[in-house]
Write a structure and sequence with these properties.
The chain has 1009 residues and is α/β, with parallel strands linked by helices. The strands form seven sheets. Strands 1-2-3-4-5-6-7-8 form an eight-stranded parallel barrel, surrounded by seven helices. α13 runs antiparallel to α19 (443-451). Bound molecules: flavin-adenine dinucleotide. Residues 235-236, 267, 269, 271, 296, 298-303, 319-323, 325-327, 349-352, 355, 376-378, 399, 418, 423-425, 458, 460, 462 line the site of flavin-adenine dinucleotide (FAD).
C-alpha cells in the first residue's frame, strides 16, 4: 500500500469514527421522506413513478386533483398497496373511496423539500445560516429555479440575486471567520450563481453572444459583491452550457475592473472527460491573469441527463460511464488543484469520504495548511460528515438553496436521485452499511479489477432511462449523429463553411438529363431571403422539351436499373450518405443562405438526408429477397417486389435536402428511375443532391435533375403517360390537384399511377392544467417559431385549459418577446427570414386577418431592416372557426385558443381539415392515455416539441388533408414505390418433393449482368 493510500485510509476511518459517534441515518427525517427513500430503493420503476409524482405535486391546485393523480400514478402498479401505506393517510388506491387530504400530502412533500431547501426567501434562510454559524459551518447561497423562459424572468432573477447579496452582507456584518486563519481567502458571504437563470436564450452554438449578453448583467452583481467583500461562484450546469460558462468567467474576470479581484470561483465537474483539459486551461489563465481565483471541484449533478441526451443525439457521451472513473478523475483533479495552490483556492464539493480523505491526505503530503482550502457539502445532506470535518479542524461550507418549492422541484428531484442512486456513496454508507474498507478503496484499483474481469463493470442502472422497455430484435437502427454545436471545433467548421459558401455565390447549375449537363436559354436566380439582393446561384430552367427528354431518359434507363440487384442499389445510397456526411458543413451553410435555415436546423436537415439514405438501404435489404409465403410440401411460393417504373419527385424548399433526398432515395433503392424536381426556391441545394448521386455512381438516366416551374413542367410530367409514380411533398392545393390528375388514365399509360402525397397541417398542442410550464412554454415557442414556423409540422394552434390560461399566457408572451430574430448566418438565431416575397406578403396578410378576427397579443418589433423577416406574432381571443385558426399560414404566427376542459380541447384540436402533428403537455397519466388514443394526427408528441421527427424513430406523415397516410422514414414506406408479385412453382415431380424450402431465395433477375 502506498503511503498516500495508507493516509487516506487512516483519515477516512477517522471520519467514519466521528460520523458513527453521532449516528444519523441518511434518511433521518422520519415518516414520509424515510418511507419514500426506502420504497424507491426497492424498485427502479416505482422510484420513477414516485419521483414523477413528487415533481408534479406542487403544480396541483386542489385535493381532488391530487387524489386523481395519485390514483393514476399508482392504482395499477404492483406496489400500489405499499405506496398506499407509504402515503400513510389511509387511502385506498385501488378501492372505491379514495380519500386523503391533499393538503396533508402537499405538506409532506414541502416538508421533504425543506430538508434540501434552506429557506423560502432571504429572511427565511438567515435562520439556517445563523444556526450553522454556531456549528462553525459557512455558507454559499443559491437561488432556486434555473429554467427561465424569458428575459423578464431572467431580469427578475438578477434583481433577486442582488437583493440576496445585500441581505446576506447586512445580516453577517459582524460575523468572523470560523478558523481565523487565511480568512482573507474565504469571504463570509458567498453566492452561487447559475448563468441559465440570468439569460433565457443561451445558445450553445454562440458563446460569444451569450457572453455579450451576460457580462453586462453580471457586472453590477460582481461590482456590488466586491464592494461588500463577498465571493461569487459560477455554478456549472449541463454540458451544453459548460464552454460558455468557462468563457464568460475568464472574459469577465480578465476585465480591468475585476482582474485583481480574487473572490471569484467556478465549478469543474470531474465526471466530464474534458475536465482535466479545462482545469489546466483555467490554471494557465489564472497565472496569466496574476490573481488568485477559486475552483469548486465536484463530480457533477447531471449524469442521467447527459447520458440520455447524448444517446438521443448520437453524440459521444461527455461523461464517464463508470462511477470509479469519475472518482479517480476527481482525485487526479484534486492533485492538479493542490499542486497549483499558489494561484487557485480549492473547494472540494463531495459527500464521499474517500474523495474527502484523499484531498486531506494529499494536502498534508504537499504541506498545504488545512485552512487554505475548504470542503463544501449540500444543505440537508451528510450532516454527520460535515460535523466530523469541522471537528477535524477543516473549513466546511454548506451549499444552501433558497426559493419556493415549484421552481425548486428539479433541484429536489436531483437530490432524491442522488440519495437513492445505486452507485452513490451516501446510499452505500448510510443505507447499505458497506464496510469502511470497501468505501475507502482506491477507485483506480476498482477500475483495474473491473478491467481484469474481477468485478463486473459498473452498469448504468442509476440511469432512469434504463427502465425503458427494450426494442424489438432487429428494430435497432442508428441515426447519424447531429452536429454538436456546443463544441468549438464544430462552431469553427460552420463559420468556415459559411465563409466558403459566400465565395460560391452566383455560380450556375445545369439540368442533368441522361447523365448530360444541359444549359437552356433561361436562367433562374435563387436568392438569399435574409438579403434578397444576394444571388446564391443561377439554375438553368427546363421547359416542356427538357421535361420530355427527362421522362424518355428515365424510361429508357428503367429496364436495366430494375434488373440491378438491390444490394448494388443499397450501396449507391450508402455512398451518397457518406458524401453527404463529408460535405455536411458545406451543405448546411448553403441552406443557411438559400432558405434561411438557422444552423442547427440546417444541420438537422442534412442529417435527415443521411438517415434517409442509410435507413432506406437497410429497409431494402430487409425486403429485397423473395420470401416464402407459406411452407407447404410440394410447392414453393415466393413473394417479392418489382419497382413501379418512372418516378417523378416534386419536393418543397422547407427541408430542401432531406425531403428531396428521402423521396429520391426511396425511389432509387426500390429500382425506379427518377426525375427530381426540387422547389424553385431551393434549386441550388437540389443541384447539390444531383452532384452527390453522380459522385456516388448513379448510372445515366436513372436520376435526372430538372429545375423549372411546377405549373409548367411539374404539371406536364404529372399527366405524362410514361410517369408511373409521383412522390410529392408540398401545399394542399398542388397535392390535391396531383391526386386528382394522376387518377385519370392517359392514352398509352401502362400503370395506374401511384401518388405519395404529403401536404400541410394546422397543428395543435394542448396544455393541460398540470403541465410542466417550464417545458411547455419553451417547447411551444420552439415548435411555433423555430425556422420561422415554416415546417409542415409546426405548431400553429396552442390550446390552453382555462384553469391554466393566465399562467401560461404570462410566461408565453414573455418567452416570445425573448426569442432571437435575425439573420441565421449568426449562430443561435431561432427566427430567420421567410422564404420569399410571396410568402412574406401572404403571411403579413394573414396577420391582418388575425388583427380583424382576434386579439393581437404579441408581435415582435425589432426586425432586421432587409430581407423577408416576418415578426413572430401571437393571437388570442380566437374562436376555432376563424380563418387564422383553420387555414395553414406557414409562418411565425401562433393562435392561442382557450378551452374549458380536455373534452373541448380535443374537439378543437381535431376540428380541422388536417391531421399531421399534434402535441400534449401533461403529467396526468390518464389524460396522456386519452390523448394517445384520441388526437387526430399522424404524429402525436407528448411533453416535447411537435417538430423534429427523426428517421426510423418518428416515421412522419399525416392523414385527412395532410396526406395520403404514408410514413416517410418508416419501415413500410418503401412499399409505396413497389409492386408486390408472387411466383409459385409446383416442385413435386411424381410424388418427389424437396424436404425443405428455404425461407428466402435469390432475386428473380434476368438476364443477369
Ligand atoms: C457544495 C456542492 C456544490 C455542487 N455544485 C455543483 C455544480 O455546480 N454543478 C454540478 O454539476 N454539480 C455540483 N455538485 C455535485 C453534485 O450535485 C453531486 O452532489 C455530486 O456529484 C455527488 O458526488 P459525491 O462525491 O458527493 O458522491 P459519490 O456518490 O461519490 O458520486 C456520485 C456522482 O458520481 C457520478 N456518477 C454516478 N454514476 C456514475 C457512472 N455510472 N459513471 C460515472 N460517473 C458516475 C455522478 O457525478 C454522481 O453525482 C455540487 C456538490 C456539492 C456538494
Amino acid at each position: 500500500m502506498t503511503p498516500l493510500q495508507n493516509e487516506i485510509e487512516h483519515r477516512g476511518k477517522r471520519i467514519f469514527e466521528l460520523v458513527d459517534k453521532n449516528p444519523e441515518s441518511l434518511f433521518s427525517k422520519a415518516g414520509f421522506y424515510q418511507r419514500l427513500m426506502t420504497l424507491s430503493m426497492r424498485d427502479e420503476q416505482l422510484k420513477l413513478q414516485l419521483f414523477r409524482f413528487v415533481a408534479v405535486l406542487p403544480s396541483l391546485h386542489t385535493s381532488d386533483e391530487i387524489i386523481e393523480h395519485l390514483q393514476e400514478y399508482f392504482a395499477d402498479g404492483h406496489e400500489s398497496r405499499k405506496v398506499a401505506q407509504f402515503l400513510g393517510a389511509g387511502i385506498r388506491l385501488a378501492g372505491i373511496v379514495p380519500w386523503i387530504s391533499g393538503p396533508i400530502l402537499r405538506w409532506n412533500v414541502s416538508e421533504m423539500a425543506r430538508q434540501f431547501i434552506a429557506g423560502r426567501n432571504p429572511n427565511d434562510v438567515m435562520r439556517t445560516l445563523r444556526k450553522r454559524r454556531t456549528q462553525n459551518i459557512g455558507f454559499t447561497v443559491d437561488l432556486l429555479g434555473e429554467a427561465v423562459v424569458s428575459e423578464t424572468e431572467a431580469d427578475e432573477y438578477a434583481a433577486r440575486y442582488l437583493d440576496l447579496l445585500e441581505g446576506l452582507a447586512r445580516e453577517t456584518k459582524n460575523w468572523t471567520d470560523a478558523l481565523k486563519k487565511n480568512s482573507e481567502l474565504f469571504p463570509l458571504v458567498n453566492l452561487s450563481v447559475k448563468i441559465s437563470a440570468l439569460y433565457s436564450q443561451i445558445s450553445p452554438d454562440d458563446p460569444a453572444e451569450t457572453i455579450a449578453h451576460l457580462a453586462p448583467k453580471l457586472r453590477p452583481l460582481l461590482r456590488r459583491a466586491r464592494e461588500l467583500g463577498a465571493f461569487i461562484n459560477f455554478d456549472m450546469e449541463s454540458y451544453a452550457h459548460k464552454n460558455s460558462t468557462l468563457e464568460l468567467f475568464k472574459t469577465v474576470f480578465t476585465e480591468e475592473e475585476f482582474r485583481d479581484w480574487p473572490h471569484a470561483g467556478i465549478v469543474i465537474q470531474a465526471y466530464l472527460r474534458d475536465s482535466d483539459a479545462d482545469l489546466r486551461d483555467l490554471i494557465e489563465w489564472g497565472r496569466a491573469r496574476g490573481t488568485r481565483f477559486a475552483v469548486r471541484l465536484v463530480k457533477g449533478a447531471y449524469w442521467d441527463y447527459e447520458t440520455t441526451k447524448s444517446r438521443q443525439n448520437g453524440w459521444d457521451c461527455p461523461v464517464y460511464l463508470q462511477k470509479p472513473e469519475s472518482d479517480a478523475n476527481f482525485e487526479t483533479l484534486t492533485r492538479l488543484l493542490l499542486e497549483n495552490e499558489s494561484i487557485v483556492t480549492s473547494a472540494f464539493g463531495s459527500h464521499n469520504v474517500r474523495s474527502i480523505a484523499h484531498a486531506q491526505a494529499l494536502a498534508e503530503q504537499l504541506g498545504i495548511d488545512r485552512s487554505r482550502f475548504e470542503f463544501q457539502l449540500l444543505y440537508g445532506m451528510a450532516g454527520p460528515i460535515k460535523r466530523a470535518l469541522v471537528e477535524m479542524g477543516y473549513r466546511v461550507r454548506e451549499y444552501c438553496p433558497v426559493g419556493e418549492l415549484l421552481p425548486g422541484m428539479s433541484y429536489l428531484v436531483r437530490r432524491l436521485l442522488e440519495n437513492t442512486s445505486n452507485e452513490g456513496f451516501l446510499r452505500a454508507k448510510f443505507s447499505e452499511n458497506v464496510p469502511a474498507e470497501e468505501l475507502l478503496r482506491d477507485p483506480r484499483e476498482i477500475l483495474r479489477g473491473s478491467r481484469n474481469g474481477v468485478l463486473p463493470p459498473p452498469n448504468a442502472t442509476t440511469n432512469m432511462t434504463a427502465t425503458t422497455p427494450k426494442t424489438q430484435p432487429g428494430a435497432h437502427y442508428e441515426n447519424a449523429p447531429l452536429t454538436n454545436f456546443a463544441l468549438p471545433e464544430n462552431q469553427e467548421k460552420m463559420r468556415a463553411a459559411l465563409r466558403e459558401q459566400r465565395k460560391q455565390f452566383g455560380g450556375k447549375v445545369p439540368l442533368t438529363i441522361n447523365g448530360e449537363k444541359i444549359w437552356t436559354d433561361k436562367m433562374f436566380s435563387s436568392v438569399n431571403p435574409s438579403q434578397p439582393d444576394q444571388i446564391v446561384g443561377y439554375a438553368a430552367e427546363a421547359g416542356i422539351p427538357e421535361a420530355e427528354r427527362a421522362v424518355a431518359a428515365a424510361r429508357a434507363a428503367f429496364e436495366k436499373w430494375r434488373r440491378t440487384s438491390f444490394e448494388e442499389r443499397c450501396q449507391l445510397l450508402e455512398r451518397a450518405a457518406e458524401i453527404l456526411e463529408r460535405r455536411r458543413f458545406e451543405l448546411s451553410a448553403l441552406e443557411v443562405f438559400e432558405v434561411g435555415k438557422p444552423w442547427a436546423e440546417a444541420d438537422g436537415d442534412i442529417r435527415e438526408a443521411i438517415d434517409f439514405c442509410t435507413f432506406y438501404a437497410r429497409q431494402m435489404r430487409l425486403i429485397g429477397r423473395p420470401r416464402l409465403t407459406q411452407n407447404v410440401p410440394g410447392e414453393e411460393s415466393y413473394q417479392h417486389y418489382w419497382p413501379r417504373g418512372v418516378a417523378l419527385v416534386i419536393a418543397p424548399w422547407n427541408f430542401p435536402m432531406a425531403i428531396l433526398c428521402g423521396m429520391v432515395s426511396a425511389a432509387l433503392v426500390t429500382g425506379n428511375t427518377v426525375i427530381m424536381k426540387p422547389s424553385e426556391q431551393s434549386v441550388i441545394i437540389g443541384a447539390m443532391l444531383m452532384e452527390i448521386y453522380e459522385e456516388a455512381g448513379v448510372p445515366p438516366g436513372v436520376l435526372n435533375f430538372l429545375n423549372g416551374k411546377g405549373s409548367v413542367i411539374g404539371a406536364h410530367m404529372v399527366d405524362h403517360k410514361d410517369v408511373d409514380l409521383i412522390a410529392f411533398t408540398g401545399s394542399r392545393e398542388v397535392g390535391l390537384w396531383i391526386w386528382e390528375s394522376a387518377g385519370k388514365t392517359r392514352e398509352g399509360q401502362r400503370e395506374l399511377k401511384r401518388v405519395i402525397c404529403e401536404m400541410g397541417g394546422k397543428n395543435a398542442m394542448i396544455v393541460d392544467s398540470d403541465a410542466d410550464l417550464d417545458e411547455a412554454i419553451v417547447d411551444s415557442i420552439y415548435s411555433a417559431f423555430g425556422f420561422q414556423g415554416q415546417k409542415c409540422s409546426a405548431l400553429s394552434r396552442l390550446i390552453v385549459l382555462e384553469e391554466n390560461y393566465d399562467r401560461v399566457m404570462e410566461r408565453l408572451l414573455g418567452a416570445a418577446a425573448s426569442v432571437r430574430v435575425g439573420n441565421p448566418e449568426e449562430p443561435g438565431i431561432m427566427v430567420g427570414p421567410v422564404i420569399d416575397e410571396a410568402a412574406y406578403r401572404r403571411i403579413l396578410d394573414y396577420i391582418e386577418v388575425g388583427k380583424n378576427e382576434a386579439t393581437l397579443a404579441y408581435q415582435a418589433k425589432e426586425l432586421p431592416p432587409h430581407g423577408y423577416f416576418v415578426p413572430p406574432t401571437i393571437f388570442t381571443g380566437l374562436k376555432p372557426n376563424m380563418r387564422i385558426a383553420c387555414e395553414e399560414i406557414f409562418g411565425p404566427v401562433l393562435s392561442v385558443i382557450k378551452v374549458r376542459d380536455l373534452d373541448e380541447a380535443i374537439e378543437v384540436a381535431n376540428g380541422t381539415d388536417y391531421a399531421l402533428t399534434g402535441g400534449f403537455f401533461s403529467r396526468s397519466p390518464a389524460n396522456i392515455e386519452r390523448i394517445k388514443a384520441q388526437l387526430e394526427a399522424g404524429n402525436v408528441y407528448i411533453n416535447r416539441p411537435c417538430t423534429g421527427a427523426i428517421v426510423g424513430r418518428h416515421p412522419f406523415g399525416g392523414f385527412k388533408m395532410s396526406g395520403g397516410g404514408t410514413k416517410a422514414g418508416g419501415k413500410d414506406y418503401l412499399l409505396n414505390f413497389l409492386i408486390p408479385r408472387v411466383v409459385t412453382e409446383n416442385v413435386a415431380r411424381h410424388g418427389l418433393t424437396p424436404e425443405k424450402t428455404p425461407e428466402y431465395c435469390d432475386e428473380f433477375l434476368w438476364p443477369k449482368h
